[in-house]
């Protein structure tokens, strides 16, 4: 079927399921995170959050707070004097200047000797607010007469495109002049993605389906809250942050306090989940406070602060029209897409629009994407940013279209699926991708093959519930980033890979496997060590499903370089040719002459000692991959719906995903199961709910519903390996795709069960019940 | 005269006197040392030192100490359970087990929440001692019936050679059976260095001079006392130590507590002077305490502890006989050398013996060297270990021999000096050395040329004092160590050199100059960053005058590698050939076409960013130099002696030193002036004095006399540049030689002034006066 990499290659390390290097420390609670760092004289920071979604700040009285024993300082935007105060950068301008713009907007910080004093201090800060009109709904915010979510200078408004004409990007890449639209200045970005002629496409279509979908903001819900500890030293600030990128953290703090980047020393520290939500939030604020006071400070969000003042995934609205011919050929894709950025721009609406055009071939495409500001917390990345929302809309509509056409849902998808050589939604000429292979893998699965019979199998306690099976597909374009790594021989004959990447979801373990393979050793001989920004080999943030793909080649080269150096030393010691040598069981051996050998330990001691005759083994690897390897996945889900309450139970889940090559199969399966579980959160449970005044109704985990273990069904991850030409051993990214099609697959299964089309996630019992009543 | 490197080369960076990178932080007091590291919950360690030079420990009662508020624990060797307890390794067995063997031997440690509580606790530990016979004098300790300085197992005694026959090493390298000598088991090592036939040599000599010399232990007197902070973490211990080598520290702690080396994380931290005295002392002890308690601990010596329980330079005794022909040809060198190791072996007596044969060609050599144990603190390295002592003996005797022969003292030295191709005292066939060049440089100096006239020039306040001029030469064999380094481009277009070496006396600044030269940039574009043991490129301890010599080539290669990478990227960006490019003013420019250029910042941003097309610039350098480059120096000093008191004032000092090539001339001159100042301490002031019970009479800086600023004359450093074939740009080591001949030069000047030959250092007024009376 597919040209997968044969798992029976002669690889020694990669391709074998391997325990995580950090597993023991994490499960035994010994791992220390950014918020566990302590320093002598450390102060604690607590935020004062606005209770209003929009209000002018008349005055802030800090006297009572400052009088509390233990309180060292209270800062407002005016007294903290950050370089970026008042700009439209959330992290550079973390404190409200004159205007609080969401319920949860920090207006002051209290710094105290203890957490308790800081909390008391925060409660004692008196802020006089003058409420302003609030806009919460993104569709309402788009209208020309909508209240403005945030006052802005004229410069900023013209810069962020509100209401003005914007160039559209056509399929040919040419820019065209666009007609003016009457829009609110809340619109902070817009894009028009065009291909072919949408009017022609819609005319050609035998069937056209049009639907509108809505989503809520969804929080990344990492286990570790946003955390940072900053310790001022003689040459700047030392920083431990729960952040996905060390260099990014360095840059953002340096910028905030106008110091050279070299004076910001960001240390590597394990992070407790991120999912895109830790690409910069509190670091400039904490850095500025520590710098101002010249004392160590720690800022760890409470769970409530994380929900009120984090950076969740954006809410979105899709009006989507698909047209197809009777034979199942997709001919028209028209969409209006709104992504709600909250108070600050950055929701990447155009990216969400492109995702709509990144699964199927369609000759006529017309997508208008809008980013709009509202009085809600501003947003950040969350695992495959914008793809779960867009894919919920697209794949629900495809399902409806297939129903209208009466065609097989997987056949329709297979027929229209993007393939190698096609143009992607991101205008990339596609390399070999595995979308068709994933669809075919699902097609062959018994849950699909015997789907009518499978629907009759339900647990006893669900008797009377309606059962349905749904499918959906989705993908992620991937990314690239240049990277470097080092590989060092240790005195005990093992090797250390030196990295600047933050370990997420086992990336270190995969790096160790890659290095072991490059060295020709088992993974037990390889350790991974992290460097901070002062000395680390360059690597970008961990995220975007690009870590193994982009960083892996640098690690592989570093390991191969170290191996070459080892063999050169051994060749000299053994008076043999490098080509006649092999590494076995911690020794370099002359092939065929096992008695002629030298241990790696001996090589280490001959190259790392006073008077050592050989140079130390210190391999170096650098890489820059030109193009991303897009990834796809196909999901199949069986659900049961309680017709009396609308409650949904997911009974079985099968996911086929093209991972290129599974470096650490257990970890890849873990990523798939984790992503699907988060997708079930999007589908059924999670959503930040605001009232019409912009008050967050779900500011705690009592109100914000995360999936519980009993909500997660048996998940069958099927690894499809269509090798990438560039990733190490053919590997592609694996982290983002599994979350992408889950909501759509579940919605389609619900439709299959009860004939009701859900157009809003999360699909709570109330919404499902209402939808059933409407049918 | 000499083939020096022309200072008017086209070098851009090296060869220019450059301010130290760490200067501002150090002079403004902002530098943080190992003892400044703080950690939450940190405990303080204070030692309980034996008041007896030798005593059986009957019992240690810690109850009273433990009852003091704030005292957390009291450990003895038995309760601390270090892996090396009871062995003959001072640092692995830091606490006396059953027997205290010197006045100052730590018998217990008190760990407390505060420094004050630890001190109170230490005072409250009750130790019941049973005094044992004491041996203090090394000559007495050698005798067969001497009391043993330390009880030892039979294994240990046979291992350390006490009294047994030892093989001698002859000139031809062959080992011969030696006759037995009646010696005490205090003798822990001995060596017999032979060449030619000493009896023949002595018979051939027209003049034979025989003298006996004695020295005292001398303390390194670094500004920063021995200090260490250890913080236990989830994966072992994090360590900041005032230590010259990070890897050495890692190994010693790992060994002491039986942990894999990987679990010891030694961080780079500036040190405040070391001079050889910080190659490992407290680290295993502090590591064991922190590991036992699983709490951060800090141990910072008081100055008194440093004097009582440091590791000073060993006391030595020389019986030296030199024979020469009337024409000034040296024909016989016979010596008996005793180095007093204190309680633990490690004084490298044989090395001290070889130093005697490392200045002049002599056909007949017979040197017997003995290392002996006494009830004194054990010794460590101190700037050119053993060479000041041996050179004081050798060069004083040469001076006497010249007087007997009536030959010119510099002519005699020039005539007999070792030259390229000769066999050194360390049996190295000498590469090009600069001993003759240094002698000739001194010969030409006005202070020598017009020495009789110069002797009449004295300050008014010294009227009536006798003035003399003395010369002495000396050297250091040098060392090598394999090394690696990295060089990284920064986003601002500057470069960072990544090192694992500890900066001593400006070595970082020299590394920056070397890297700048390799990059083709000015030193302002280069920063130096230090890595810890987890991730650093391998490098050994800083010391032995091998840092620039051995590490410099790795830095140069790393910089050249980074430059190559920069040019390759620029070539692609500019569509030009690498060979047509040059780096100028932060830009890569096509030669002859200044408008065709790309800035280093642009190159950084094209190679270190999301989607960057080029791999990050990350250069790598490795080196292993096969042979050391021996260094020599010639000193000329003018002194005045008060005939009524014996007080000596040094009036002028000239030193010519072969430095190969001065990477940073100001720093090289600084090294010379610093070494000479320390040498004046050896010559005139410093010496640890013990009474017959082994009580240290100089345990504070009130008693132990360091040279004051007014004791240091004008010093004229003359750089002689006889390039090394291996060091970077021809550089040789520079740190050790300047201390070597000082005591001899001063002694010879005193003889010239008053006709009295001083045979013991320091040459205190009392000793000078006594010697004058004896003439």
Entry keywords:
homodimer; Aldehyde Oxidoreductase, domain 4; 22 helices; seven-stranded mixed β-sheet; 28 strands; alpha+beta
* CATH fold-type name of one domain in chain A: Aldehyde Oxidoreductase, domain 4
Largest interface: A-B, 60 and 61 residues
Ends of chain A: how far apart? 41 Å
> Total number of β-strand segments of chain A?
28
User: Strand portion of chain A, in percent?
Assistant: 15-25%
The whole-number mean of residue pLDDT values of chain A reads: 94
**Count of helical regions of chain A:** 22
* Helix-residue proportion of chain A: 25-40%
CATH architect. name of one domain in chain A: 2-Layer Sandwich
| Adjacency order of strands in the biggest sheet of chain A | 3-5-1-14-11-12-13
- Shape call of chain A: globular
Helix/strand structural class of chain A = alpha+beta
Strand count, sense and closure of the main sheet of chain A? Answer: 7 strands, mixed
The radius of gyration of chain A is 28 Å
Low-confidence stretches of chain A: 1-5, 161-174
Identify the CATH class of one domain in chain A.
Alpha Beta
CATH-assigned homologous superfamily of one domain in chain A: Aldehyde oxidase/xanthine dehydrogenase, molybdopterin binding domain
Q: What is the oligomeric state here? A: homodimer
GO molecular function (chains A, B): iron ion binding; oxidoreductase activity
InterPro entries (chains A, B): Ald_Oxase/Xan_DH_a/b (IPR000674), Ald_Oxase/Xan_DH_a/b_sf (IPR036856), Ald_Oxase/xanthine_DH-like (IPR016208), AldOxase/xan_DH_MoCoBD1 (IPR008274), AldOxase/xan_DH_MoCoBD2 (IPR046867), AldOxase/xan_DH_Mopterin-bd_sf (IPR037165)
Pfam family, one (chains A, B): Ald_Xan_dh_C
Organism (chains A, B): Thermosporothrix hazakensis
């Amino acid at each position: 079927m597919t040209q997968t990499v044969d798992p029976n290659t002669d690889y020694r390390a990669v391709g074998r399921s391997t325990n995580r290097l950090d597993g023991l420390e994490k499960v035994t609670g010994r791992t220390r995170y950014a918020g566990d760092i302590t320093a002598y004289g450390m102060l604690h920071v607590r935020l004062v959050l606005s209770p209003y979604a929009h209000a002018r700040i008349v005055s802030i009285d800090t006297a009572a707070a400052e009088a509390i024993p233990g309180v060292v300082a209270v800062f407002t935007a005016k007294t903290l004097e950050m370089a970026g105060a008042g700009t439209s950068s959330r992290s550079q301008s973390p404190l409200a200047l004159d205007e609080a713009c969401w319920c949860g907007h920090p207006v002051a910080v209290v710094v105290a000797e203890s957490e308790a004093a800081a909390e008391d201090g925060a409660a004692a800060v008196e802020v006089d607010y003058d409420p302003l009109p609030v806009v919460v709904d993104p569709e309402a915010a788009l209208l020309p007469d909508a209240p403005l979510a945030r006052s802005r200078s004229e410069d900023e408004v013209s810069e962020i495109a509100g209401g003005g004409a914007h160039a559209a990007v056509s399929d040919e890449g040419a820019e065209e002049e666009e007609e003016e639209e009457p829009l609110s200045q809340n619109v902070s970005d817009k894009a028009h993605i065009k291909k072919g002629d949408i009017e022609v496409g819609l005319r050609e279509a035998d069937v056209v389906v049009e639907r509108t979908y809505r989503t809520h903001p969804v929080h990344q819900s990492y286990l570790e809250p946003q955390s940072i500890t900053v310790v001022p030293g003689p040459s700047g600030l030392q920083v431990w942050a729960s952040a996905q990128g060390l260099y990014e953290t360095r840059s953002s703090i340096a910028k905030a306090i106008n110091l050279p980047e070299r004076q910001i020393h960001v240390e590597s520290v394990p992070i407790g989940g991120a999912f895109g939500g830790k690409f910069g939030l509190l670091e400039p604020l904490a850095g500025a406070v520590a710098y101002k006071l010249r004392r160590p400070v720690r800022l760890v969000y409470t769970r409530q602060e994380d929900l009120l003042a984090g950076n969740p995934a954006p809410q979105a609205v899709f009006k989507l029209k698909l047209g197809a011919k009777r034979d199942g050929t997709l001919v028209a894709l028209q969409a209006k897409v709104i992504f709600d950025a909250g108070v600050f721009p950055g929701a990447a609406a155009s990216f969400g629009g492109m995702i709509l055009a990144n699964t199927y071939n369609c000759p006529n495409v017309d997508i208008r994407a809008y980013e709009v500001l509202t009085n809600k917390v501003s947003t950040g990345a969350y695992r495959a940013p914008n793809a779960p929302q867009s894919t919920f809309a697209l794949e629900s509509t495809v399902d409806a279209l297939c129903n209208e056409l009466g065609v097989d849902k997987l056949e329709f998808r297979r027929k229209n699926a993007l393939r190698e050589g096609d143009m992607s939604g991101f205008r990339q000429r596609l390399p070999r991708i595995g979308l068709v292979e994933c669809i075919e893998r699902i097609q062959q699965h018994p849950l699909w093959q015997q789907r009518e019979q499978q629907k009759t199998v339900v647990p006893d306690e669900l008797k009377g519930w309606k059962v349905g099976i749904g499918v959906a597909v989705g993908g992620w374009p991937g990314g690239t980033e240049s990277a470097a790594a080092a590989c060092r021989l240790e005195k005990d004959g093992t090797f250390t890979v030196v990295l600047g990447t933050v370990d997420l979801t086992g990336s270190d373990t995969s790096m160790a496997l890659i290095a072991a393979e490059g060295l020709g050793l088992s993974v037990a001989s390889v350790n991974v060590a992290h460097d901070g920004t002062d000395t680390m080999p360059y690597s970008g943030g961990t995220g975007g499903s690009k870590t193994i793909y982009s960083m892996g080649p640098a690690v592989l080269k570093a390991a191969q370089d170290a191996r070459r150096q080892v063999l050169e030393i051994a060749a000299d010691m053994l008076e043999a040719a490098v080509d006649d040598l092999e590494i076995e069981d911690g020794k370099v051996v002359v092939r065929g002459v096992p008695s002629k050998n030298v241990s790696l330990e001996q090589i280490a001691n001959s190259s790392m000692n006073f008077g050592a005759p050989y140079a130390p083994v210190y391999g170096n690897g650098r890489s820059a991959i030109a193009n991303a390897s897009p990834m796809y996945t196909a999901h199949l889900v069986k659900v049961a719906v309680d017709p009396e309450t609308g409650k949904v139970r997911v009974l079985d889940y099968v996911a086929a995903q093209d991972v290129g090559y599974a470096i650490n199969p257990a970890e890849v399966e873990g990523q798939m199961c984790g992503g699907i579980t988060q997708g079930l959160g999007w589908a059924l449970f999670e959503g930040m709910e605001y009232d019409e005044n912009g008050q967050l109704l779900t500011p705690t985990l009592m109100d914000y519903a995360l999936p519980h273990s009993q909500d997660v069904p048996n998940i069958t991850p099927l690894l499809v390996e269509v090798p990438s030409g560039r990733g190490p051993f053919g590997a592609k990214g694996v982290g983002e795709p599994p979350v992408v099609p889950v909501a759509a697959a579940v919605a389609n299964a619900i439709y299959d069960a009860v004939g009701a089309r859900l157009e809003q996630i999360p699909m709570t019992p109330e919404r499902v019940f209402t939808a059933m009543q409407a049918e």
